[in-house]
Design brief:
Chain B: Belongs to the thiolase-like superfamily. Beta-ketoacyl-ACP synthases family. The complex is a heterotrimer of chains A (411), B (416) and C (85). By secondary structure, chain A is an alpha/beta fold. In chain A, strands 1, 2, 5, 6, 7, 8, 9, 10, 11, 13, 15 and 16 form a twelve-stranded mixed β-sheet that branches. Chain B is α/β, with parallel strands linked by helices and 416 residues long. In chain B, helix 3 runs parallel beside helix 6. Chain B contains 15 helices and 16 strands. Chain C contains three helices and no strands. Chain C has a single domain, classed as ACP-like (Non-ribosomal Peptide Synthetase Peptidyl Carrier Protein, Chain A). Helix content of chain C is 49%, strand content 0%. Chain C starts with 5 loop residues before the first helix and ends with a helix. The chains are: A alpha/beta (411), B alpha/beta (416), C mainly alpha (85). At the A-B interface, helix 4, helix 5, helix 6, strand 6 and helix 7 of A face helix 4, helix 5, helix 6, strand 6 and helix 7 of B.
Chain lengths: 411, 416, 85
Amino acid sequence: MSVNRRDGASAPVVTGVGVVSPNGIGVEAYWKAVLAGSSGIGEISRFDTDGYASGIGGEIKGFDPAEHLPSRLVPQTDRMTRLALVAAEQTLADADLDPRSLPDFAVGVVTAASAGGMEFGQREMEALWSKGGAYVSSYQAFAWFYPVNTGQISIRHGMRGASSAVVTEQAGGLDAVAKAGRHIDQGTPHMLAGGVDSALCPWGWLCMSRSGRLSTVADPDRAYLPFDTDASGHVPGEGGALLVLEDPEAAERRGARKRYGAVVGHASTFDPRPGSGREPGLRRAIEAALDQARVGAGDIDVVFADASGVPDLDRQEAEALAAVFGPRGVPVTAPKSMTGRLLAGGASLDLATALLALRDEVVPPTVNVTSPAYGDLIDLVLDQPRECSLTYALVVARGYGGFNSVMVVRR
Amino acid sequence: MVTGIGVVAPGGIGTKQYWELLTAGRTATRTISQFDASAFRSRVAAECDFDPVASGLSQREIRAWDRTTQFAVVAAREALADSGVLGVSDPYRTGVMVGTACGMTQSLDHEYAVVSDEGKKWHVDDAHGSPYLYDYFAPSSMAAELAWIVDAQGPVGVVSTGCTSGIDVLGHAADLVADGTADVMLSGASDAAISPITVACFDAIRATTPRNDDPGTASRPFDRTRNGFALGEGTAILVLEEYGHARRRGAHVYAEISGHATRANAYSMTGLRADGRELAEAITTALDRARVNPGDLDYINAHGSSTKQNDLHETMAYKRSLGEHAYATPISSIKSMIGHSLGAICSLEVAASVLAIEHGVIPPTANLHEPDPDCDLDYVPVTAREQRCDTVLSVASGFGGFQSAIVLTAPERAAA
Amino acid sequence: MASFGIKELVDVLRESAGEDEDINLEGDILDIDFESLGYDSLALFNTIRWVERDLGIALSDEAISVTGTPRALLDEINRAAAQAA
């Protein structure tokens, strides 16, 4: 769509990353698991999935909030907020960024959400309906609402700059980072951005099942097979990633040590109404993001795919990638095959993963895909990591309803 | 440039009725009728007399959409008809940004009660529950519906920042037009969350007014006797259009969004720091971005929620950011009339600010009879004031610590 | 009705609002204001809802203040409980 100011020189740099994921808490634990092809997908253990069409997901196991968070924060937070607070702490530590040591209003936060704190909400609605309004927690008013992660992170770390929250279903993790980039342009030089999400409770599970996109295959290794001839939908997971984005000069000024890369291009588009017969908006989003990054398709070294797992959507994506990059023109990967789709957290985790791939010049694998369906269109990196020279990565995220978001990052 | 306005509000559906209510100083707060609220502490709300059939929605739309989406679609259609932009703009350069604080809460509350057998089952029942549950789960579904109406294939999404959503989303949409990402944005906010869970939430923190015996005067911003906000519901959707695009097609331009800013208080999820520093900072930054001086302001459309805490905080923020001009500028809170519709309200307030510019009338603060001695500015009590308005500030403050400000200016300024 | 004392109040505070790791709620806290004890208004609202439900009482908005102390709150609670009894 558009090209605004973001050319190479002033593109925001990523100086810190934090990850909470079904296959690892912490950047390095996660990255090691991804390169090993180690999946965090399994049978849901937190609640009984009998009676539901599917029972497979990407849970973060062994996460005890009391180990990670002050006790004052535990009663007032949903699981997704607890996970987000842990990720935020990691990310700021990784960036060596202490908002309280910087000028007032210099640091902001933008998070992506999908449904807010569903598990907390289910518990409070249970209290309301079974016992009455007097039993609803005074924390419910915000524990459930969409920008709760932004608010709680801002309060905990003293971040008073321009802050926000966005909802574009599973495209949100990139849109939040793009919005943070705008906040940097507008004068908040240091931003924390991304998404961490969870809705793994019976009520969330039932709602998600109504998307019609959950796989009903009961084998954890066969349930989510993006771009496979046996693709049958996806499995939901929980977690995500947050990143510190900074104006490069401001990062320099405060002596930031790490540079994972720069966010050089982004575009969001929307698909035409279903059934209209017109082309989906994905190809346009990819082309506009490349334009904004001022690079050609040939400059992109790896694509992190949305990898829906729904056959029609997989085909759309493979066709769009082949149209822009040429058939098998660029390595494509879907490490989310090891975590499931993390609602608003997935796209920012892909972005973090792309930056780690650029750092170490290795493309992480897509696991469990044994029978690629679009081998003529895309070069899917299967089973083993692929070492190669990497400068630019392109990340694709799509959201239910027709949202397309594409981001280009440079080493 | 604002080239179209659509409104669903308590006391009237449509922009014309909305403006009549506001300038007459009539209140639309009443005893909650959408469900039996007799067991709750606060039983007052400003409800919309909304008939989806009369508003042109089909049976399928009524069945599938939460009331929040229904409002948004009806307001969007009015705004599009008002602007005449439908079918004129390039789909690839047309977008939608919609705000909401509570999303599809009413449907989720109702559906939850069904699938849990009124809270008896943690393991909710898959055999029941609407086929549209996922659309209620993620409020991005509302943005999608609006996008299909206007055939928007550019940037589409939801900005949700609690009670500042309506300003933050319009600010973001204005940015997308200003930086060349889109020519036309359909943008505003919608909330229709007058539902047991919402009422219970606000009861739990004693934020809503318990003045149940006199619902018509329940919302009393800046009054000494104020004791909480009155819940509301509604929607305002605006058409924002790039200046040249609007001019070339000869569109009527109501006003320009010339600056906005948001800050966080990093203090409390619900509380406000007494000194109003962060809101003051947002106001100052929005004025700077609009290239407007405090002395240029003709009117301030206040947050004025009618809580003890907010109205003081806001008054402090005006003094801090505007200095002596805080005393000279008329300020009013339309929440006195249409309650506090959470995320939607500040889009309704921006719509009212635009209409104040258009008509040269400042809507009053109703129910303000006993001024709080600590709220010592000109709050335009009870009666509307005719006065030319070229430059208007609207502010909001909300849960999560968000503090936002937006500046609207008369179109002549942009042309000059 | 058994009287509602500091031990009971601390139990409810912990359960409904957690506790600040740097503050010893077992110490002599009767005259320390809630804010200094690490509790904001939300924590107090949540705590007081538990107390109100358990004791079948209703406290006024004025009774709930972060600048108040456990002693003052306990006085309010026990006065309301005596009236309700």
